[in-house]
Amino acid sequence: MTTTASTRAADFEGFYQAHFTGTVLLVYSFTADMQAAQDVAQEAFARAWQRWHQVSDYHDPLAWIRRVSINLTNSRWRRLRTARSYLERQREEHAAEVSPDHVAVVAALRRLPKNQRSALVLHYLADLSVEDVAQHLDAPVGTVKSWLHRGRSALAGTLMLETPEVTAPPAQEIRDRGQARRRVQLAAVTAGAAVVVAFVLAVLTVTAPSATPVVPALGTSPSAALPPGCLPGQIPVDLTLPVSESQVLVNVFNGTKTADLAVNVAADLRNRKITIGTVGDETEYRDLVAVLRYGPESLGEAQLLRAYLVVEPVKLEFDPQRTTADIDLVVGGQFKQFGSPTEMRQKIAQLGQPTLPPGTCKR
């Protein structure tokens, strides 16, 4: 192992040892299943190691781990719901009993004052920062901290539950798991690329006007560079949702006659950690909440911004020729305000993953 690789591994191991237990307990609060929580946390850290050169440069790598863990947990719940739906169709006459701990926690939360209960759920289950909780509940940060402290004390006295013991597997096991994922993905990409190249060569051979096949030079054929599953002529697009708002670059334009609307909207987006580019005026859109213009590089970012708009109508304009990763937001006459972080997450869940525009394929 080179010095650089050794330093990188040591950096990851320190991060893993510091945050593995907290991540397991976070997932456990959602699942009430310690085995599932351990597995989800290990998978999240394995994915982090797989792209550690990128994740380690994030402003808050732990936020990335938490988001991946929650996404994996949500995927697990979807699988369980599918299985439950199947069992219901099979007319099963029995059902698993509700965990006594789950009943105790719900009962204890119900006995708390509404403000303490709301603060605890938003902070520990919805994973909002204290500042975001304060904004959502329209209360000072100091007051929210007081609610959290008193709520925790009340729950501890009521439940007398012990924190589950968590044993972190060796960091090398997590790195090996990440390396195994990388090898599987590389094999899949290589096999898919080989299929695409073979298809392109077959088409060129059949359609060539002369008896001699025309074979493009290696690395010069646009079709040969297409991702697996893309056909010649399709435009690859990035459907990945951004890890944080700071990855979203937005140009804000005023589509109304209200003075300084674009400036005020841009300031609101900056407060949400979104990066702002150009600010100016645009054609008037009196009957719309907003217009979003974006290209192949920013479908996920456009989805997040659309979720912040919460209400409709929002007009989406996909430009396949756009090569930049920024988004144009034209604020229309029906715009009132952006949603809260909680409303944004609910809207993201409602919208689901971004869909492929016509003539495109997933990168």
TrEMBL record:
Q: Which residues form the RNA polymerase sigma-70 region domain?
A: 26-81
Please name the InterPro entries in this protein's record.
Answer: LytR/CpsA/Psr_C, RNA_pol_sigma-70-like, RNA_pol_sigma-70_dom, RNA_pol_sigma-E_actinobac, RNA_pol_sigma70_ECF_CS, RNA_pol_sigma70_r2, RNA_pol_sigma70_r4_t2, RNA_pol_sigma_r2
- Can you give the residue ranges of the LytR/CpsA/Psr regulator C-terminal domain? 247-335
Protein name (database record): RNA polymerase sigma factor
Q: Which residues cross the membrane?
A: 184-206
Can you tell me which family this protein belongs to?
Belongs to the sigma-70 factor family. ECF subfamily.
Name the Gene3D superfamilies for this protein. Answer: 1.10.1740.10, 3.30.70.2390, Winged helix-like DNA-binding domain superfamily/Winged helix DNA-binding domain
- UniProt keyword list: DNA-binding, Membrane, Sigma factor, Transcription, Transcription regulation, Transmembrane, Transmembrane helix
Q: Does the keyword Hydrolase apply?
A: no
* RNA polymerase sigma factor 70 region 4 type domain boundaries: 104-155
Q: Name one Pfam family in it.
A: Sigma70_r2
